[in-house]
Design goal:
Length: 297
């Protein structure tokens, strides 16, 4: 005689259990989606507000291939190199300095190190930075060790997405280039001949406008990656291991929090490269061009 299998399950209970499980899964999915969106928005806001734009520690955008109008290095035949610094200033950075959330946006230690070691450098200033530090801008321009270049006025992107920087409207590009040139001439007493795009991002029309203003675009072939980088040794290695004849090195002039360890890395960089026989020169010397024109100011 076959025995019957007796089931103690209640269909209604089973339905309730399945419903609860599905409900939990739905709520958990909604939670993950919401938090993912909140994180993405917060991350995007942080990048947009704090980026100083060379983007060494940000996702890489598509940057146009270098051409005859964008200089990345000098002659590979001479053991000369150019140390360059970007003095970035966005509207957000200016606000943080004015609110005393940032102690300053100029690294005086860098100036002292360069002077003490008699090391030449080219400093690319944003117009907004020069407005905030007019006395220092004039002092830098008057120092024979240093050369001044333009880094735009407001440090916005000249071409699409560029490390979270706000994009400069196309109808403002020519105005921003010319305004910064005039501002630096007024404050520093020099007519700049070199221009560097924020983040290194540009398009053909922007390059043409820079050239039409009588300026040469100068970028780099060695990235120090000192932006928001607290690892001094990594900055040193980023430079030392990639320098070759004619190299143009890019670092930052702002100090903490945007470039906290640049001054700490700089003495070793200078010492090791000089020990390797490299001569530090200004960009105009590296490229065999005349010095910047001094105006009556």
């Amino acid at each position: 005689m076959k025995s019957k299998k007796v089931s103690n399950s209640n269909p209604l209970v089973s339905v309730l259990i399945i419903t609860c499980i599905l409900g939990f899964i739905l709520l958990f999915t909604v939670f993950l989606i919401k938090n993912s969106r909140d994180f993405s928005n917060a991350q995007a806001a942080t990048i947009a507000n704090s980026s100083i734009i060379t983007g060494e520690n940000q996702p890489q955008p598509d940057i146009n291939e270098p051409n005859d109008h964008v200089i990345l290095h000098g002659s590979r035949d001479k053991k000369q190199i150019a140390l360059t610094f970007d003095a970035d200033m966005t509207a957000y950075m200016r606000q943080q300095v004015e609110l005393h959330n940032y102690p300053t946006s100029i690294n005086y230690s860098i100036i002292q190190i360069l002077e003490q070691t008699h090391t030449k450098a080219t400093i690319f200033l944003t117009g907004m930075w020069a407005e905030m530090y007019p006395v220092e801008t004039k002092t830098l321009a008057d120092n024979s060790l240093f050369e001044i270049g333009s880094h735009s006025y407001s440090h916005q992107s000249f071409s699409g997405y560029c490390y979270g920087l706000g994009e400069l409207p196309k109808n403002e590009v020519e105005k921003e280039i010319g305004y910064t040139e005039g501002l630096l001439e007024q404050i520093a007493g020099v007519k700049v001949q070199f221009f560097r795009f924020p983040g290194g991002c540009y398009d053909a029309s922007s390059v043409q406008m820079v050239n039409a203003a009588g300026e040469q675009v100068v970028h780099w072939d060695v990235v120090g990656d000192d932006g928001f980088n607290n690892d001094t040794q990594s900055i040193i290695q980023n430079v030392i291991t990639h320098v070759q004849n004619g190299s143009i090195i890019v670092l930052h002039f702002n100090g903490p929090p945007t470039a906290p360890m640049t001054a700490d890395a700089l003495p070793t960089i200078i010492q090791q490269l000089k020990a390797k026989g490299y001569e530090f020169v200004k960009v105009n010397e590296l490229l065999g061009m005349p010095e910047e024109v001094r105006t009556n100011n």
